[in-house]
Amino acid sequence: MRILGIEGTAWAASAAIFESDSIELSKARQNAASDGVYECAELDDPSDDHVFIETDAYQPDSGGIHPREAAEHMSEAIPEVVETAIDHAQERAVADSAPPIDAVAFSRGPGLGPCLRIVATAARAVAQRFDVPLVGVNHMVAHLEVGRHRSGFDSPVCLNASGANAHVLGYRNGRYRVLGETMDTGAGNAIDKFTRHVGWQHPGGPKVEQHALDGEYHPLPYVVKGMDFSFSGVMSAAKQAVDDDIPVNDVCRGLEETIFGMLTEVSERALSLTGADELVLGGGVGQNQRLQGMLKEMCEQRGAEFYAPENRFLRDNAGMIAMLGAKMYAAGDTLEIAESAIDSNFRPDEVPVTWRGRDPVGPAGGASGRRPRADDAETELQGAEATVTIEADRVVKERNPRSYRHPALDERLRTERTRQEVRLTSEARHNGVPTPLVLDVDPDEARIVFQRVGAADLRESLSADTVGAVGEHLARIHDAGFVHGDPTTRNVRVGGNETADGRSVFLIDFGLGYATGEPEDHAMDLHVLAQSLAGTADDPEALFEAARDAYRDESDHADAVFASLTDIEGRGRYQ
Ligand SMILES: C[C@@H](O)[C@H](NC(=O)OP(=O)(O)OC[C@H]1O[C@@H](n2cnc3c(N)ncnc32)[C@H](O)[C@@H]1O)C(=O)O
Ligand SMILES: Nc1ncnc2c1ncn2[C@@H]1O[C@H](COP(=O)(O)OP(=O)(O)OP(=O)(O)O)[C@@H](O)[C@H]1O
Ligand SMILES: [Fe+2]
């Protein structure tokens, strides 16, 4: 099978030819499937691939990407790169074989509307010229599928660190679920805004990488909420630091340590939550060696495998569009021209994943996870941040150093979170929320001894009642003026010991909590819960509804919180 891919969401006018024999083979298997369920293209072998990519990059004279200039670039460059790719396909095609390509895949979104329209028009024209099907590819899913394909991993967690985006995805029940994402700008856009402030030419990422090599770490605000994260505070502080005459190399180093530390931490949280033991990286910022190094080290420390594709598949490129296009085409996932409109806000979780077949059997990415449970014979659990040793009636939680992080940042996070966890666990309890008693604490060693509570983690005991209780507990702590910060299905213990009034749903792990009366912060707690349900439950919507109902009944300000939650859920940041 030979597929033409066309990419042009923002800066890269790119066309590619992806050729694979093994994907064709799996298509034949699919057609033979009598039960109508696709066996799908999981037999493919990347070592057989032939990938040709032709790219013409738009380089702004000054400032960042101007949508109009980018579109002008696309209209000039797309026809040329497409012709070059078709010439290449023709050379590869055996002399008498009819069309040189089997299908045309194009990036349908997300991206800049005017650019996307030019790409879609070109794709339709080529599909008609050769009378072959059209395949509409989600650019963000392509960023991660290229890594999954080339690594040969089965069900990895995927970190996309690109210009306009930053998110962690996991596959579950036919969709890529957003486990965590940026609350404001994309990773690259954040860095590029900083370099514009300093007066460096676009794109800024490679320049920050270069300058950071000669810099000392300069501390900047670090913001992780569950598996979501924010770049706005760190970027303002970085600009301010330069204005305050902190050496620019030091600020660049601080930026890398902070931003990539956050991305690595949320990736580790996603691995821990889903029980997956494979991580792939995608997106242009993924070319950064410090980011790759941190992710690799984190994975090594927890016994997971890490894969980063070559740079030509990380930055925007049509190779990834053609590759995913081939899998979609093999699965029969093609578009009629009349339905081939672009979608500039196309989210990765909107894509029905037709090419992966059935969910893998076993725990990877699933609700059960690979971690031992607290009630198993094992007595030591590896959480996302800490090692937890379970004893008869108490547990010892130690936040071990993370060697991927800068030592100063590592020490600060471990000590602060330990203190905060102790404070808020007790405060929640005073406000009527079941939590374990704190029996002992040593902030310098980042060590806490808790009473052992519950018989299982919430993710093993999901029901409207248990999730509803979490909604009620969150309402209480919010009314008391603080948030949990990470209310996932792993951070709630259920069953076993009861409180004096017979309740047995306990909140644990308050290390990311903080004092706040802002409805938006309260809504983030609910959003984190919803995302973690989507990552672990089969019926996440119904369960989350139970949490919302209980929250509404308990809270003094549910309307304001739900209004904020609607804003958070509707965040679209691709324009
Ligand atoms: C929607 C689509 O148009 C968009 N594409 C995009 O953002 O281009 P991409 O190639 O994935 O990433 C470009 C970003 O990647 C950054 N970048 C490139 N090399 C870098 C490096 N060595 N270190 C850090 N950032 C780097 C650039 O500064 C720029 O912000 C996206 O995928 O979000
Ligand atoms: N007080 C407790 N009683 C019983 N089990 C506990 C208790 N505290 C922690 N655990 C168990 O240990 C696991 C990890 O604990 P915790 O969430 O505090 O660590 P963590 O490293 O912060 O994890 P993560 O960040 O992945 O949520 C919990 O999911 C739970 O199974
Ligand atoms: Fe991209």
Automatic annotation (TrEMBL):
<dbReference type="InterPro" id="IPR009220">
    <property type="entry name" value="tRNA_threonyl_synthase/kinase"/>
</dbReference>
<feature type="region of interest" description="Kae1">
    <location>
        <begin position="1"/>
        <end position="355"/>
    </location>
</feature>
<feature type="binding site">
    <location>
        <position position="205"/>
    </location>
    <ligand>
        <name>L-threonylcarbamoyladenylate</name>
    </ligand>
</feature>
<keyword id="KW-0819">tRNA processing</keyword>
<dbReference type="InterPro" id="IPR034680">
    <property type="entry name" value="Kae1_archaea_euk"/>
</dbReference>
<comment type="similarity">
    <text>In the C-terminal section; belongs to the protein kinase superfamily. Tyr protein kinase family. BUD32 subfamily.</text>
</comment>
<feature type="binding site">
    <location>
        <position position="139"/>
    </location>
    <ligand>
        <name>Fe cation</name>
    </ligand>
</feature>
<dbReference type="InterPro" id="IPR000905">
    <property type="entry name" value="Gcp-like_dom"/>
</dbReference>
<feature type="domain" description="Gcp-like">
    <location>
        <begin position="51"/>
        <end position="322"/>
    </location>
</feature>
<keyword id="KW-0808">Transferase</keyword>
<keyword id="KW-0408">Iron</keyword>
<comment type="similarity">
    <text>In the N-terminal section; belongs to the KAE1 / TsaD family.</text>
</comment>
<feature type="binding site">
    <location>
        <position position="143"/>
    </location>
    <ligand>
        <name>Fe cation</name>
    </ligand>
</feature>
<feature type="binding site">
    <location>
        <position position="209"/>
    </location>
    <ligand>
        <name>L-threonylcarbamoyladenylate</name>
    </ligand>
</feature>
<keyword id="KW-0067">ATP-binding</keyword>
<dbReference type="GO" id="GO:0005506">
    <property type="term" value="F:iron ion binding"/>
</dbReference>
<dbReference type="GO" id="GO:0061711">
    <property type="term" value="F:tRNA N(6)-L-threonylcarbamoyladenine synthase activity"/>
</dbReference>
<dbReference type="GO" id="GO:0000408">
    <property type="term" value="C:EKC/KEOPS complex"/>
</dbReference>
<dbReference type="GO" id="GO:0005524">
    <property type="term" value="F:ATP binding"/>
</dbReference>
<dbReference type="Pfam" id="PF00814">
    <property type="entry name" value="TsaD"/>
</dbReference>
<dbReference type="GO" id="GO:0008270">
    <property type="term" value="F:zinc ion binding"/>
</dbReference>
<dbReference type="GO" id="GO:0002949">
    <property type="term" value="P:tRNA threonylcarbamoyladenosine modification"/>
</dbReference>
<dbReference type="InterPro" id="IPR017861">
    <property type="entry name" value="KAE1/TsaD"/>
</dbReference>
<feature type="binding site">
    <location>
        <position position="192"/>
    </location>
    <ligand>
        <name>L-threonylcarbamoyladenylate</name>
    </ligand>
</feature>
<dbReference type="GO" id="GO:0005737">
    <property type="term" value="C:cytoplasm"/>
</dbReference>
<keyword id="KW-0418">Kinase</keyword>
<dbReference type="InterPro" id="IPR022495">
    <property type="entry name" value="Bud32"/>
</dbReference>
<dbReference type="InterPro" id="IPR011009">
    <property type="entry name" value="Kinase-like_dom_sf"/>
</dbReference>
<keyword id="KW-0723">Serine/threonine-protein kinase</keyword>
<dbReference type="GO" id="GO:0004222">
    <property type="term" value="F:metalloendopeptidase activity"/>
</dbReference>
<feature type="region of interest" description="Disordered">
    <location>
        <begin position="351"/>
        <end position="382"/>
    </location>
</feature>
<dbReference type="GO" id="GO:0004712">
    <property type="term" value="F:protein serine/threonine/tyrosine kinase activity"/>
</dbReference>
<dbReference type="InterPro" id="IPR043129">
    <property type="entry name" value="ATPase_NBD"/>
</dbReference>
<feature type="active site" description="Proton acceptor; for kinase activity">
    <location>
        <position position="486"/>
    </location>
</feature>
<comment type="subunit">
    <text>Component of the KEOPS complex that consists of Kae1, Bud32, Cgi121 and Pcc1; the whole complex dimerizes.</text>
</comment>
<dbReference type="InterPro" id="IPR017860">
    <property type="entry name" value="Peptidase_M22_CS"/>
</dbReference>
<feature type="binding site">
    <location>
        <position position="288"/>
    </location>
    <ligand>
        <name>L-threonylcarbamoyladenylate</name>
    </ligand>
</feature>
<keyword id="KW-0012">Acyltransferase</keyword>
<protein>
    <recommendedName>
        <fullName>Probable bifunctional tRNA threonylcarbamoyladenosine biosynthesis protein</fullName>
        <ecNumber>2.3.1.234</ecNumber>
        <ecNumber>2.7.11.1</ecNumber>
    </recommendedName>
</protein>
<dbReference type="GO" id="GO:0004674">
    <property type="term" value="F:protein serine/threonine kinase activity"/>
</dbReference>
<keyword id="KW-0547">Nucleotide-binding</keyword>
<feature type="binding site">
    <location>
        <begin position="160"/>
        <end position="164"/>
    </location>
    <ligand>
        <name>L-threonylcarbamoyladenylate</name>
    </ligand>
</feature>
